[in-house]
Design a protein that fits this description.
Bound molecules: zinc ion
Order of helices and strands: HEEEHHHEEEHEEHHHHH
Number of helices: 10
Largest sheet: 5 strands, mixed
Radius of gyration: 22 Å
Strand order of the largest sheet: 6-5-4-7-8
Distance between the termini: 38 Å
């Protein structure tokens, strides 16, 4: 991989082609003439003289980490079936700081969700599930650092295919399983007209008023376990829990769970991609179209 990207110039020209596949477009005035180049990465629009860089306004904006390291990280992230933890990435790339590794992974996670992506269609199962995370904040009771498990509620939607198999998924952390949160999740995640399969919860009672074909399974104590009637949701919930505890060792803070849900969704929805190289390309393509997020903004995020 690093042979393709022998130096910073090679990385920059690769990112420039991804960002402007049909040639430079001025971010300010939209002019498409070939820009002036005052240095390797500094471009100036011929029409309005606006100056920009290839990485400005992308997840690589103002980074002090070499682009070669970024691209190596993207390669590693997309080539590991289950992804990589910040500690694992730090080790494999020989990064000086854990924070650098952690921030890179978070910036990539931001790029894993495409704005304006299509909603789910067809037959869709919807349910909620608790996922556990280790909450490693220090307890007031003593100097010893104890960890306990925090739980977050996640809404899950899964396309169910005929005769069998699952399509795409959507996930969202919600504070409680009330109609307010579940209805807005369904409306954001699923195309009207779809058949939505839920349990008997009252939170879903108005789905048919919102142009969904609503199918409810009401369980009683004598029925089988929930996964018999909701195989998709059950499968995704158990894979998600295993991934959080395995790859990330449960070290995800509840306030940052959303970013991990984005990564899980990105991987799940592309799990059949034949070529890992395509995944690498997609991630970088979205990375140059995604606004940067700073370390401070990630850790300041409130629960
Ligand atoms: Zn311009």
């Amino acid at each position: 991989m690093l042979d393709w990207f022998a130096d910073e110039a090679a990385c920059l020209s690769y990112l420039e082609q991804l960002r402007w596949p049909l040639g430079f477009v001025c971010p300010r005035c939209g002019d498409t003439s070939e820009p002036y180049r005052s240095s390797r990465d500094r471009l100036m629009c011929r029409a309005c003289r606006h100056q920009c860089t290839v990485t400005a306004g992308t997840v690589f904006d103002k980074t002090r980490t070499p682009l070669r390291t970024w691209l190596a990280a993207a390669w590693y992230v997309t080539n590991q079936k289950y992804g990589v933890s910040a500690l694992g990435l730090q080790r494999v790339l020989g990064l000086g700081s854990y924070q650098t590794s952690w921030t890179m992974l978070h910036r990539f996670r931001r790029a894993m969700v495409r704005a304006g992506r299509e909603r789910l269609k067809g037959n869709v199962e919807v349910d909620e599930s608790y996922v556990g995370m280790r909450d490693s904040r220090k307890l007031l009771s003593g100097a010893k650092l104890k960890s306990h498990t925090a739980r977050s509620l996640v809404a899950i939607a899964v396309e169910v295919q005929e005769p069998k198999g699952f399509g795409r998924i959507r996930l969202r952390r919600i504070p409680v399983d009330s109609e307010r949160y579940l209805l807005s999740f369904v409306r954001d995640a699923i195309e009207p007209g779809a058949k939505v399969h839920t349990d008997g919860s009252a939170a879903y009672r108005s789905l048919s008023e919102h142009e969904y074909v609503h199918e409810r399974s009401v369980h009683s104590a004598s029925d089988g376990p929930a996964h018999v009637s909701m195989p998709g949701v059950h499968r995704v919930a158990s894979l998600l829990k295993r991934w959080l505890l395995g790859t990330h060792q449960g070290a995800v803070q509840p306030s940052q769970l959303d970013y991990y849900l984005d990564e899980f969704t990105f991987r799940f929805n592309r799990r059949t991609s034949r070529s890992r190289g395509l995944l690498f390309y997609r991630l970088l393509e979205q990375a140059v179209a995604t606004q940067p997020v700073t370390y401070q903004r990630i850790i300041d995020r409130k629960t």
